[in-house]
């Protein structure tokens, strides 16, 4: 039986609807939204004494159910189809005496002005507004005009819809421009028997007298899980918020039917602020053999550890899911702007939501475990938030690492999953005559993070490799007591130049940093300080190098090359480029030639390269080879970083075995009395996997 129209235009034809209802017979036809799902929303806006108009009633049971449940009695139903009106009069006439059915075109109604308190529309607007042709929009304007005319001031137009973008946008723009309050509810669906994949929405437009001039629009959305409406700024934002919920419903439907071949991620936002509260990644492991208890689990990433390889990369999460032994694992990252009430609070908050992401075949009433490292949610303390004109928003925070160690981090919020700088913290040392607090066995001490910076520890693997590269410097023994002139471009928290300053006792370090805010951060929060052998120049690294190169070129005999080592550890502010470190201008050939000019012939240029674009990376390497005849590369495992060691003369060539030997000599010399040394830092290991390019 063919019940669908040959063209969308037939949805407005009385002839089509007569034929439709004659063929369908007495069976009720519900477009979407069963009464039990709609009832909680309708009760908010339809009162027992209201006079209600139902436009385009069809043979839906909605009016009958509202009547029978006592929601309201004075209901007038209209429809363009004579066949369905006769059918509904026969069905309800004697049982519901206060409810009437009339054949009437809602584009030209016979009712007097301000006759109703509520106009109810279930799917009628969706059926009419099938496209954005001029004739269709004109018809919808007539419909809205008639509804507006027959409603009293304070009356509500309640429209049940699937909220296609053009439908919602038209309704919101029309009524908000008329000065009405517009609120959109997402209807809570019975997920077991959901007829439509897309969620159902109810628009509620409340009529107010139009105020001359430009009165502010009042636009709100009520997600299904909360009653309190959220104010939005514009029709575009409201349409976007609805579209996000539609995409989420489609995603949940897809995940409930099949395994995901690629990892899926989404943000769950705070109800009050609308800012992200949880970031979820859905990871499926088809290789895990199914059993009753290993279908599904939730893993809470401890605060501050979301950037680690295991939690912050696709490969790491795959490994985590496989080792956990679950066919689907949802990892949950916590956001620094939010407050959390422990694991139990997070579990209570997320339990209902994560079940929407459950895999196919999950047994009924299956308990879904919440996992974490050590059973807690970690510790994160934000000490400082600010905005730099150059670097944007940033935070300084302390986080608890694996075990008992605490770390201080600098994070740029434009790239919040990347730690810009990191330093390990030390327990405070008691002052002379001051006793260290003893722990009372009966009274557990609060977990207070330490505050002193451990300057001996390089947290970043690429910083360790950059320091190890100093063994490439000329001379029989690369000893720390040898006078060195080192240029570091990019300060960050200052841990790299601080380590060189402290462990190479004759080194003079010049640091170039374009952002004055970073010098303040490094000094205040990371224990950085200047002195006779450490000087910071707040300027553009491109200008600084160019100026020195010009001086050397102008007086080649009087002004010899300045530096034994030049290190670039500078991030790009342009996130659209496939290279986040360094900025592209730092690896252009003319500038690299200037770098070579201020580097001693036996010196080494060390570059931290972070490039995800394979073609761009190959281009950078080719340019480096044109300028520097000798080029070594050390890839940082589990990271995108690659440390490049460039030398201006091929005569400095050393095979990897010799590099390892020189690194061991250098490490032995760095282990000086009175200076701490972290045993996990093995310089030879840093150069073990070096490739000669």
UniProtKB/TrEMBL annotation:
Keywords assigned: Methyltransferase, Multifunctional enzyme, Transferase
Membrane-spanning residues: none
GO biological process: methylation
Entry keyword Amino-acid biosynthesis: no
Stretches the record annotates as Disordered: 429-450
Family annotation (Gene3D superfamilies): Vaccinia Virus protein VP39 (3.40.50.150)
Entry superkingdom: Eukaryota
Ranges of compositional bias, category Basic residues: 434-444
Gene Ontology terms for molecular function: methyltransferase activity
GO cellular component: cytoplasm
Pfam families per the UniProt record, alphabetical: Methyltransf_31, Spermine_synth
Keyword DNA damage: no
Domain Methyltransferase: 50-176
Family: Belongs to the methyltransferase superfamily.
Protein name (record): eEF1A lysine and N-terminal methyltransferase
Source lineage: Eukaryota, Metazoa, Chordata, Craniata, Vertebrata
């Amino acid at each position: 039986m063919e019940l669908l129209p040959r063209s969308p235009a037939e949805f407005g034809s009385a002839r089509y609807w007569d034929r439709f209802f004659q063929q369908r017979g007495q069976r009720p036809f519900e477009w979407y939204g069963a009464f039990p799902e709609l009832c909680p929303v309708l009760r908010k806006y339809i009162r027992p004494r209201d006079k209600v108009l139902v436009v385009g009633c069809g043979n839906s049971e909605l009016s009958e159910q509202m009547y029978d449940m006592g929601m309201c009695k004075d209901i007038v139903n209209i429809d363009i189809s004579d066949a369905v009106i006769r059918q509904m009069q026969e069905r309800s006439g004697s049982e519901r005496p206060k409810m009437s059915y009339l054949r009437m075109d809602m584009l030209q109604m016979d009712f007097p002005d301000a006759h109703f308190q509520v106009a109810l529309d279930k799917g009628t607007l969706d059926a009419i507004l099938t496209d954005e042709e001029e004739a269709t929009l004109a018809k919808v304007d007539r419909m809205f005009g008639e509804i507006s005319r027959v409603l009293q001031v304070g009356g509500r137009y309640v429209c049940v819809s699937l909220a296609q973008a053009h439908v919602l946008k038209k309704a919101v723009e029309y009524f908000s421009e008329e000065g009405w309050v517009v609120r959109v509810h997402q209807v809570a669906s019975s997920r077991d028997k959901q007829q439509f994949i897309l969620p159902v929405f109810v628009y509620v437009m409340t009529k107010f007298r139009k105020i001359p001039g430009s009165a502010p629009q009042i636009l709100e959305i009520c997600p299904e899980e909360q009653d309190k409406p959220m104010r939005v700024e514009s029709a575009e934002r409201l349409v976007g918020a609805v579209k996000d919920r539609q995409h989420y419903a489609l995603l949940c439907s897809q995940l409930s039917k099949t395994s995901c071949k690629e990892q899926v991620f989404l943000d769950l936002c705070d109800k009050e602020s609308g800012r992200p509260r949880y970031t979820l990644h859905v990871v499926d492991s088809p290789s895990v053999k199914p059993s009753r208890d290993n279908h599904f689990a939730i893993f809470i990433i401890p605060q501050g550890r979301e950037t680690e390889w295991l939690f912050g990369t696709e490969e790491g999460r795959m490994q985590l899911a496989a080792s956990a032994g679950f066919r689907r694992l949802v990892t949950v990252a916590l956001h620094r702007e939010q407050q959390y009430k422990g694991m139990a609070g997070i579990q209570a908050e997320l339990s209902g939501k994560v079940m929407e992401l459950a895999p196919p075949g999950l047994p009924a009433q299956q308990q879904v475990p919440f996992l974490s490292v050590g059973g807690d949610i970690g510790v994160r303390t934000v000490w400082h938030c600010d905005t730099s004109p150059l670097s944007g928003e940033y935070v300084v925070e302390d986080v608890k690492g694996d075990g008992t160690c605490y770390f201080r981090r600098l994070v740029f919020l434009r790239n919040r999953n990347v730690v810009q700088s990191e330093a390990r913290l030390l327990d405070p040392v008691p002052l002379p005559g001051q006793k260290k607090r003893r722990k009372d066995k009966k009274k557990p001490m609060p977990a207070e993070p330490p505050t002193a910076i451990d300057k001996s520890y390089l947290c970043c693997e690429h910083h360790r490799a950059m320091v190890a590269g100093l063994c490439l410097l000329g001379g029989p023994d690369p000893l720390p007591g040898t006078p060195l002139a080192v240029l570091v471009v990019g300060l960050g928290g200052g841990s790299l130049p601080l380590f060189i300053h402290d462990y190479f006792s004759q080194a003079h370090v010049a640091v170039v940093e374009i952002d004055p805010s970073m010098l303040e951060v490094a000094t205040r929060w990371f224990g950085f300080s200047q002195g006779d052998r450490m000087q910071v120049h707040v300027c553009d690294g491109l200008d600084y190098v160019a100026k020195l190169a010009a001086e050397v070129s102008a007086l080649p005999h009087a002004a010899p090359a300045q530096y034994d080592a030049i290190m670039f550890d500078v991030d790009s502010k342009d996130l659209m480029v496939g290279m986040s470190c360094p900025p592209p201008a730092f690896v252009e050939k003319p500038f690299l030639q200037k770098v070579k000019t201020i580097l001693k012939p036996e010196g080494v240029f060390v570059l931290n390269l972070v490039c995800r674009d394979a073609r761009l990376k190959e281009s950078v390497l080719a340019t480096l080879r044109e300028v520097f005849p000798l080029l070594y590369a050390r890839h940082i495992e589990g990271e995108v970083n690659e440390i490049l060691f460039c030398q201006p003369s091929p005569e400095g060539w050393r095979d990897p075995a010799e590099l390892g030997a020189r690194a061991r000599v250098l490490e032995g010399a760095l282990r000086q009395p009175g200076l701490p040394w972290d045993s996990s830092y093995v310089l030879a290991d840093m150069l073990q996997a070096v490739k000669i390019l």
